[in-house]
Amino acid sequence: MSAHSVPGTTAAPSTGHAPGDDPVLVVEQLSASIAGQQVVEDVSLSVAAHGVTAVLGRNGVGKTSTLRALLGLIDRTGRVTLAGQRIDRLPTHKIVQRGVGYVPEDREVFAGLTVAENLRLAERDEHPRRELVERLFPDLTARRDQRAGTLSGGQQQMVSLARALLNDNTVLLIDEPTKGLAPKVVDEVAVALEEAARDVPILLVEQNLEVVRRLARTAVVIEGGTVVHTGSAQALLDDEELTQRLLGVHVEAAEVAP
Ligand SMILES: Nc1ncnc2c1ncn2[C@@H]1O[C@H](COP(=O)(O)OP(=O)(O)O)[C@@H](O)[C@H]1O
Ligand SMILES: [Mg+2]
């Protein structure tokens, strides 16, 4: 079924990808509250069928809450279609079964279990993609018997990403995978994400603008729980005034990827 046959999906913001390349996930007027406080307000965005779509914004603007609302982890209203099918009324487990993979903000691993056990517990499909994971994360194969709690932050992030990549997901929601990592490790995670994005489209919340520049075609900026800008990631990051105004950061020339 084509997403174009679903009324309303054509009203999604343009993401600049090729015509006929329907977005995999279309979010329209998503709103959500936590403890009576509205944290997501009329968020509309679409995730391209290929590659990385980035969500940017200062701390506390509602990026994580948007992902949690998409997954039905917090009460929400609005319309969400995954590959043309509504998922906004489904409970979380059904959304996960439809192929929405989640890599949460604080790289949740089972600290007391080995790497191999962490990965085995994540396997949902009949034929988990172990070869893909072994190819992307050779370090994890070497450390398969090590307890995940004794891994470095970067290695734990790899476990967290690997858990999502083992299953044949339709889209991945990945929340700040490079947060708190050393620059060299940020690079390693970025390489893994770049590779992963060849396989599955990714909605990536990311504060590291170098990583955004390298990976994302489209950037969606959130402020105060709502979308305040959607467009080419490159164009946004090249626009010093806009980046400063929307993200409160000054993009140094040195940050431009080679
Ligand atoms: N469990 C919670 N209880 C109460 N307020 C929360 C909770 N989680 C998030 N919030 C509030 O929701 C808003 C958005 O938070 P969040 O989505 O985590 O932002 P971001 O990911 O952009 O940093 C913030 O004001 C935050 O304080
Ligand atoms: Mg967050």
UniProtKB/TrEMBL annotation:
SUPFAM superfamilies: P-loop containing nucleoside triphosphate hydrolases. The keyword Nucleotide-binding applies. The keyword Metal-binding does not apply. Residues 1-22 are annotated as: Disordered. Keywords: Amino-acid transport, ATP-binding, Nucleotide-binding, Transport. InterPro entries: AAA+_ATPase (IPR003593), ABC_transporter-like_ATP-bd (IPR003439), ABC_transporter-like_CS (IPR017871), BCAA_Transport_ATP-bd_LivF (IPR052156), P-loop_NTPase (IPR027417). Residues 25-249 form the ABC transporter domain. GO terms for biological process: L-amino acid transport. CDD domains: ABC_TM1139_LivF_branched. One of its GO terms (molecular function) is branched-chain amino acid transmembrane transporter activity. Belongs to the ABC transporter superfamily. This is Branched-chain amino acid transport system ATP-binding protein. It comes from Mumia flava.
